[in-house]
Specification:
Elements (H helix, E strand, L loop, with lengths): L11 H6 L3 E2 H8 L3 H11 L5 E2 L5 E3 L1 H15 L4 H11 L15 H16 L3 H14 L2 H18 L6 H23 L6 E6 L6 H11 L5 E4 L9 H8 L4 E4 L8 H11 L4 E4 L1 H6 L9 E2 L4 H12 L6
Parallel strand pairs: 4-5, 4-6, 6-7, 7-8
Antiparallel strand pairs: 1-3, 2-3
Helix pairs in contact: 4-5, 4-8, 6-7, 6-8, 9-10
């Protein structure tokens, strides 16, 4: 039900049907204090909690995820006043997971994150490794990374200023980078055809690049990575020597005004097609419309599907 101002209120019966969190619990889960949460709601409209009969704010799991997305963009240097437009532009329908997992609730993923968080806080690599294996035996790869592991990694990254959090994030980041690189190497061991994946300098962290490589790879297509700090100006030389099917640039940052022009110049100099992936590709899609550069988006299954369509000549740029 709603009042005349449009604010959503929930009855007691409705509250029982959906897991909702009071503002203090959201503050605990995200590290954002209640004053800031209220400001994001009132001043910027970034989150819209429902209200109980008492008038208290109640947040859904999707609200919690929205708060974490806001924090992620702020951590990348985006002003909070601009985050709303970015979230609206970058949001796109997710590709459905297998029917075996479509009814799995985010609460179940949260339980795995709680167990992982305990292992991380104890710096217990053996326990963390066992949980890592159990999660992979329970869900498909894209769910494991995009719904369980990377949100937790991002949460720890954002909270680094708290005492002990830097050590915990570094412990988890090191663990995930090693395991992800291992999986990536196995996935490309017996595949001849490959694309080259490179970061746009300063636009992502190494783990984000590794995970993107894993999500883009398939049984018929390998993904070879270039390291962090790879100069854009030397990519033409690298591609000339190794001749990939395509060059995929990865960015998780909003594009600068000059980036579309830089990418267009690069695309004209390359002998292979140029593709853009990550959060940045959603935000740059309009400015690259009509160019030879394809945008793959930021969701694992969607990125992989679009890349395959592009290489087959079935994806418009």
């Amino acid at each position: 039900m709603h009042d005349l101002s449009g604010t959503s209120f929930l009855t007691s019966d409705a509250l029982k049907q959906e897991e909702l969190f009071p503002i203090r619990e959201v503050s605990r889960l995200t590290g954002v204090n209640p004053v800031t949460l209220r400001a994001w709601e009132r001043r910027y409209g970034l989150i819209q909690p429902t209200r109980a009969d008492s008038g208290h704010r109640l947040y859904s799991q999707s609200d919690v995820e929205a708060v974490r997305s806001i924090l992620a963009w702020i951590e990348r240097g985006v002003a909070v006043s601009k985050v709303g437009k970015i979230l609206a532009k970058s949001s796109s329908p997710k590709v459905a997971v297998s029917p075996l997992y479509e009814n799995v609730s985010s609460g179940e993923w949260g339980e795995w994150q709680t167990q992982l968080r305990r292992a991380i806080s104890a710096f217990d690599e053996g326990r963390l490794d066992r949980l890592y294996g159990q999660v992979f035996s329970s869900y498909p790869l894209n769910v494991v990374f995009q719904d369980i592991l990377m949100p937790l990694w991002q949460e720890l990254l954002i909270r680094q200023e708290e005492f002990g959090q830097t050590s915990e994030w570094l412990f988890f980041d090191t663990f995930l980078r090693a395991r992800t690189l291992q999986r990536l190497q196995i996935s490309r061991a017996e595949v001849d055809e490959f694309v080259l994946l490179a970061p746009i300098p300063g636009h992502c962290r190494e783990l984000e690049l590794l995970v993107a490589g894993l999500l883009l790879s398939s049984p018929d297509l390998a993904v070879n990575l270039l390291g962090m700090g790879q100069p854009l100006s030397e990519l033409t030389l690298v591609c000339e020597k190794i001749q990939p099917l395509a060059l995929v640039l990865f960015s998780n940052h909003p594009p600068s005004e000059d980036l579309p022009r830089q990418l267009t110049r690069l695309a004209l100099a390359l002998e292979c097609p140029l593709v853009l992936a990550g959060d940045g590709s959603d935000l740059a899609e309009d400015s690259l419309s009509g160019s030879p550069i394809a945008c793959l988006g930021n969701e694992g299954r969607l990125m992989q599907r679009r890349l395959q369509q592009f290489l087959a000549g079935h994806l418009d740029t």
